[in-house]
Amino acid sequence: MESEDSNVSNQIEVGDVVDSNQESPQNVEKTSEPTEPTEINELNNKICEPMDTGDTEVEPEDNPEEHEDEELGEKKLKNSGGFTGRGVTLQMLLEDNILQPKEGAMSLEYMGQKFEGDLLNDGRIRSAEVQEVFGSPSAWALRCKKIVNPEQKYGCGWSSVRYCGRPLDVYKNQWMRKRRLEQISESSPTPDCNAPINDNNEAEMDARQVTKSPAVFKIGFCDRPTFKHETLGNRSTLDDGNLLVETLIFNNFGKLQPFTVSLHTSAAIVIDIHCSLTSSEVVGYLAGIWDMNTNGLTIKRAFPCLSRLADASRGHTMELTIFQAMEAAGLSLVGWYHSHPSAPPTPTVQDIDTQLEYQLKLKGGGDQGYRPCIAMISSPYQRGSDVSEYTELNETSGGSPGCPLTCYWVSPPPESRPQELARPMAMKYTVVPDSYIDQAVYHDIESCLQFYKDAIDRINVSEIWKESVTILDKLKAALITNLKNDQSSTSIRSFLCNKNGNM
Q1: Under a CB-based contact definition with an 8 Å cutoff, are residues 271 and 376 in contact?
Q2: Biased composition, Polar residues: where in the chain (predicted)?
Q3: Helix and strand element counts for the chain (H, E)
Q4: Can you identify the CATH homologous superfamily of domain 8-52+242-502?
Q5: 140-166 pLDDT per residue, tens
Q6: Is 92:137 a contact under the CB 8 Å cutoff?
Q7: Which residue stretches of 338-391 are H helix?
């Protein structure tokens, strides 16, 4: 990390725009700082709704053939055994009770104008403004947008159309997640009840050997490409919110980080364990302290959001519990984390949009009210590529975490190019060893273990990760790397060993 004694002119100010084509950065418009409960409620609307890291639907200009393809989508998806997000229709969501027919349930806002519609029993949308019926969200979105802007060519229905106030993407991801879990359940081998009982000792020995032999971890390689920011163009042209975007380095722009970041081991181990327990994407909050005198952000705790997307009641209960825990610990909300189970720990287009929104909400008004907001991504099971470029962000002397963990902050687009996608900037951080692990941290770990204990998407830590190393061994090594205190290291290792039956 650059020295604090470096020339101030080389340091990017908090809230400035990183732009290689203009000399003076532009400031972000400041917003008033909300109260803590409001922050939790607002941010949780998206944080507790993990984005599906598979492909999403890229919706082209509306045409009749597209609607015929959508009607065949369910059959293709069910027969193919794969769920990528393409071919999902409103009718499929209705049949699985993800959505319900309802008058006035559909809405769309575009350039200051709001459109409303009814969701019909057959999955079509009846528009209130134009008194027409549309076969897909894309068709309706395109029609509405062309009323305002005749040059509009793309509908982007699933990301822009809302059902009861929530984006359709949320419901589509919920349906896809449900389908994946059903597929996993259906593909699991079932015992053969008609198999004869064999009393042969040799056969029993072979069976025991098979049972004891650890399985090889089956999460696949992720071959999704990472795109450079300068190749993406305007945000409005990016229909796929799951595109991975390469983070940028401050030094490459002749700038320093706007603030330093310190991550306490109590937070790091909770992130590692939470993200490593499931093959699904997880999310959580980061709590800590902002010191404007030293320009440093300290992350002291991580709070997992232990709720499923469809369980709204538990989600609200979790956010209240998290807020109370932060308040009791004397900490503030300073960011969020999520996982890319097997994809690189670099943000997607949607991650960038979300992070920019969070930064503006926490920014506050004036120097006294300002508080930065950062994001972290963990990739516990990434394979097939060099992770050194990500682990280098951890500036702690003597080690890097076993699970790649990146920290990023978003630089808003310049005023001269407001439609440009915000720039994801890699934030270097240091890991601060805690002298001891607080009991509350053990409680958070225990809660994670219990939550995923019987889940279909739970990771079996007894499986082989690489060569003869199990996933549990991998997880222990990653945690111990961050625990410099021998007593803390021994305590957490003993805790994991004792809880191995729940993992």
Answers
A1: yes
A2: 1-12, 19-29
A3: 16, 18
A4: Cytidine Deaminase, domain 2 (3.40.140.10)
A5: 888 888 888 877 655 567 778 899 988
A6: no
A7: 349-363, 366-369, 388-391
